[in-house]
Known about the structure:
Blueprint: H1 2-6, H2 14-26, H3 29-33, H4 41-59, H5 63-87, H6 92-119, H7 122-132, H8 139-158, H9 161-166
Helix pairs in contact: 2-4, 2-5, 4-5, 4-6, 4-8, 5-6, 6-7, 7-8
Amino acid sequence: xxxxxxxxxxxxxxxxxxxxxxxxxxxxxxxxxxxxxxxxxxxxxxxxxxxxxxxxxxxxxxxxxxxxxxxxxxxxxxxxxxxxxxxxxxxxxxxxxxxxxxxxxxxxxxxxxxxxxxxxxxxxxxxxxxxxxxxxxxxxxxxxxxxxxxxxxxxxxxxxxxxxxxxxxxxxxxx
Length: 175
C-alpha cells in the first residue's frame, strides 16, 4: 500500500522530484539575505544537505515505502554532487577521491543534524549549524536557521507522505 501511496512503482523519478523540492527550498534568497548564509557554493551545499536531511528523516517515518523514497532522494543527491564536480571541471581521475570526501562531509552533517532534529534540541542544532552553515555569521543567524529547521521538521511531520511528493510544506524563512 505504501508503494502505491508514494507512487514508487509507477514513478521511478520520485527521487528527482524530492531532490528538486529540497534544492528549490535551499535556494530561497531569504536564507542569504535575511539569515546571513553566505551565497557561496559551500554554503549552498550545506543548505542542500540540511533540506535533504529534513525530507529523508520525514520519509523514513512512513515504513518501507518511505525508506525507499528517502533512499532514492539520497541517491539523486549523490548523483547531483558527482555531476556538479564534473561541471566544475574536476577530472575523471579526481572525481572518486573528491566524492569520497564529499560523502564523508554529507554523512557527518546528517549525523550532526539527525539527533538534534529528532530530539527537537534547538541548542545542539544551533551549534551544528553554526559550525557548518554559518561559520562566518552570527549566533543569531545559526539560531534562526535552527528555529526554521525545527519548524520545517514539525510541518513536514504533519504532511501526509503523498503530499510531500507534490511539494513539501516548509516553514517560513524569517530572521
